[in-house]
């Protein structure tokens, strides 16, 4: 069997071509950016051991296990992040939140802004911000000690100076920040989509019956921890933008707005805090 035939077998299982290519590269011990190599060597024979491993990986993916867990890493905003079942796999949608955060920092007068990422998980948001705005002081919190272990390992591998701390949202935080950013749990506890997310940590996904429990908590806590002119940016579900904007406005935030992801869905909402909390 050659490489092209192995990929054809994966297609029969229903795997997307990109997923199959990344799994095959992993089985061959090659880097995920070497997809062009696969095309150039599609008639190369596939060793029995590599084929056996590839078949196992394909079955796991076909059963719904996230690709990031299978290969042990995920690319996010240009960073290669280690991921496993202690954390959610970073989604491309969240890159919308990171880009908004970078835009906010670009417009801020401080050359050394203080940023805090709440519910950091793998550290994806905090590390992407630090990578692209090295002058910022970046902190990242998570209630899960296991998630923080993953985030610290990613920071060490990437040589990015981010301070990690175990905490539930802003509880115990005394500083003020130019930017608070978070991708909190926002799935309703009875959402039928949860049946397809059994491999990922439930506590990082659900937030009460309407999915807004943690967002409400963050919005209530944020004013006391923002400097005047500071921003709170939140990722949320595809149908929650109106509700999150209303919560921000009711809490006294100004310039409340939302941003769309690449699919045109309002994925993030935020506002500016103009008064001392």
Overview of the structural elements:
- This protein has 2 domains: 3-63, no CATH class; 74-273, Vaccinia Virus protein VP39 (Rossmann fold, 3-Layer(aba) Sandwich).
- Helices cover 37% and strands 20% of the residues.
- α8 (145-158) links the parallel β4 and β5 (162-166).
- By secondary structure, it is of the alpha/beta class.
- The strands form 2 sheets. It has a 7-stranded mixed beta sheet with strand order 5-4-3-6-7-9-8, sandwiched between helices. A two-stranded antiparallel sheet has the order 1-2.
- The termini are far apart.
- It has 10 helices and 9 strands.
Indicate the topology.
Blueprint: H1 3-12, H2 17-27, H3 35-40, H4 48-62, H5 67-71, E1 73-76, E2 79-82, H6 94-107, E3 114-118, H7 124-132, E4 137-142, H8 145-158, E5 162-166, E6 177-182, H9 213-221, E7 226-235, H10 241-250, E8 254-260, E9 266-273
Parallel strand pairs: 3-4, 3-6, 4-5, 6-7
Antiparallel strand pairs: 1-2, 7-9, 8-9
Helix pairs in contact: 1-2, 2-4, 6-7
Average pLDDT for all residues: 91
Sum up the overall morphology in one term: elongated
Q: How many structural domains in the coordinates?
A: 2
Distance between the termini: 66 Å
Can you list the strand order of the major beta sheet? 5-4-3-6-7-9-8
CATH class of the largest domain: Alpha Beta
- What class, by secondary structure content? alpha/beta
Number of continuous helical runs: 10
State the helical fraction.
25-40%
The amount of beta strand, in percent, is: 15-25%
How much is the radius of gyration in Å? 20 Å
The residue ranges in which pLDDT falls below 50 over 5 or more consecutive positions are none
Let me know the largest β-sheet. Answer: 7 strands, mixed
What is the fourth-level CATH superfamily of the largest domain?
Answer: Vaccinia Virus protein VP39
CATH topology name of the largest domain: Rossmann fold
* Order of secondary-structure elements: HHHHHEEHEHEHEEHEHEE
CATH-derived architecture of the largest domain: 3-Layer(aba) Sandwich
């Amino acid at each position: 069997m050659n490489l092209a035939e192995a990929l054809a077998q994966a297609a029969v299982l229903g795997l997307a071509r990109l997923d199959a290519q990344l799994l095959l590269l992993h089985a061959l011990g090659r880097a995920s950016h070497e997809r062009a190599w696969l095309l150039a060597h599609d008639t190369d024979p596939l060793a029995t051991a590599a084929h056996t491993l590839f078949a196992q990986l394909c079955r796991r993916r076909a059963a719904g296990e996230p690709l990031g867990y299978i290969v042990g890493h995920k690319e996010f905003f240009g960073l290669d992040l280690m991921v496993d079942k202690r954390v959610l796999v970073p989604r491309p949608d969240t890159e919308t939140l990171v880009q908004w955060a970078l835009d906010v920092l670009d417009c801020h007068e401080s050359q050394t802004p203080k940023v805090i990422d709440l519910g950091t998980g793998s550290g994806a948001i905090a590390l992407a911000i630090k990578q692209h705005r090295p002058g910022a002081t970046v902190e990242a919190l998570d209630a899960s000690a296991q998630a923080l272990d993953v985030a610290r390992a990613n920071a060490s591998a990437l040589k990015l100076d981010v301070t990690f701390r175990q905490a539930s949202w802003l509880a115990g935080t005394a500083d003020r920040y130019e930017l608070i950013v978070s991708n909190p749990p926002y799935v309703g506890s009875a959402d039928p989509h949860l049946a397809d997310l059994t491999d990922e940590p439930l506590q990082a996904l659900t937030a009460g019956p309407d999915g807004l429990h943690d967002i409400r908590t963050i919005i209530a806590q944020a004013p006391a921890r923002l400097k005047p002119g500071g921003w709170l940016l939140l990722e949320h579900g595809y149908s929650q933008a109106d509700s999150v904007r209303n919560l921000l406005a009711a809490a006294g935030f100004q310039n409340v707005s939302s941003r769309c992801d690449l699919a045109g869905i309002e994925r993030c909402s935020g506002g500016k805090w103009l008064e001392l909390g």
